[in-house]
Amino acid sequence: MKALGIPLGISFTFWFIVGVLRFLTERLSALRKTRKKRSYKSSDIAVILPAHNEEEVIRNSIQFLKKSLDKSQIYVVSDGSYDKTYRRARMEGCHVSRLTPGRGKAKALVYLLKRHHLFERYKLIFIVDADTKIDPGFVQVALKLFDDPDVGVVFGSARIFWPQHFIPSWKYYLISYRERLNRLLQYFLIYGVTWKHTNTSFVIPGFATIYKSKILKKLEIDTPGLLIEDFNLAFQVHKRKLTKIGYSPSMIGWDQHPDNLKDYWNQVKRWNIGFFQTVKKNRVWPSFFWLSLSVFSIEVFLNSLFILVLPFLILFLVSGYLAGLDPAFAGYHEVFVNTVPFKDLNLSVILIAVFLVDYITTVTIGLINKKPQFILYGLFFFFMHYVTSLILISSLVPGFFGKSDGRWTSPKRRDE
Q1: How far apart are CA 191 and CA 193, in angstroms?
Q2: Which residues, 6 or more positions from 81, have their beta carbon under 8 angstroms from its beta carbon?
Q3: What gap in Å lies between CA 75 and CA 251, rounded to an integer?
Q4: Considering just the CA atoms, what is the radius of gyration of the chain in Å?
Q5: Which of these, 80, 95, 105, 391, is most buried using a 10 Å CB contact count?
Q6: pTM
Q7: Domains of the chain
Q8: DSSP code of 326?
Q9: How do residues 368-391 score in pLDDT, each as one tens digit?
Q10: Do 149 and 246 contact (CB within 8 A), yes or no?
Q11: pLDDT per residue over 218-243, tens digit each?
């Protein structure tokens, strides 16, 4: 079982090995390849950017896009915003529309595609979130991936703005937790599942993704009843065997993570509910995709349950040391040590196998990514492990039995 998000499970181990194989084979292949003419060029791309109350970040997002693409290729829609999103987007000289009332991200995307006839005018559609700053090298790497005719959609890797700081803060504690998780997923899952010979990615992240128009045109973007479209689009691609999903860690989108617990809870719960809704909508079909997804999902679910009961396990273990204070503690401890799978469990096992391994992983990721503050923040990540597990379990009922109109509220944005 994965302990506290550590990639020790079957799924993470398998995909890490696949990722290593991919890295080696692609490096060998690159040595033999000759430079050839690109199948697509940057002028083939239309950017569609839905925004809801994004006045703090919308101009920066557009300005970064303009480093790679002409402003005439950028199409923004202010979806039910009641701030200055529309006005500030207009200042950048791109195409800007306004929807009142808001329809939700998926419907706003469909609105832009239809209003501007983008499928007919462009070969590639670039979906970007309003808080994402696209790295200047993103587009050229993406175009290179599209040289493979089997690849019909590519997505990038999320990075964050991380100021070096000496005084710890709650804000950067939350941001560092999400950053750690993103890096774990990138190293131990995403790179492997997006290899062309496996290709089982169960999500197409909507923050920075480019589709071939002929592929996106075949997908139902605004499926009724779903909270988000990211998972549903990936499920459709695999179920209908439409294309392969490409990914490169060098395609970078500078993103923002929630810096307060309320926004973190709402965002992660939204993703979890969207995933469960997608599973219910698409159901199961025989495939390597579903085998991979099932193993991963079972491990994450069991891991979450383990985290939620872990404080009680520790309490039972501690009760052995408190037996002399009250007979009740002795009774609790006796029941616990005679329960089969816990009879060989002790505090040192939990400390080493759970907390210490988790902490070492956190510190390693922090140092690799030049974020030494992880050394301190990682000491207290169990709290966020617990919160994240609680969000997952609490999302099951609304995910499988609830519906949504697709409208969303963005986390609090920062002017970075």
Answers
A1: 6
A2: 51, 52, 53, 54, 55, 98, 102
A3: 21
A4: 23
A5: 105
A6: 0.91
A7: 33-164+188-257 (3.90.550.10)
A8: -
A9: 999 999 999 999 999 999 999 999
A10: no
A11: 999 999 999 999 999 999 999 999 99
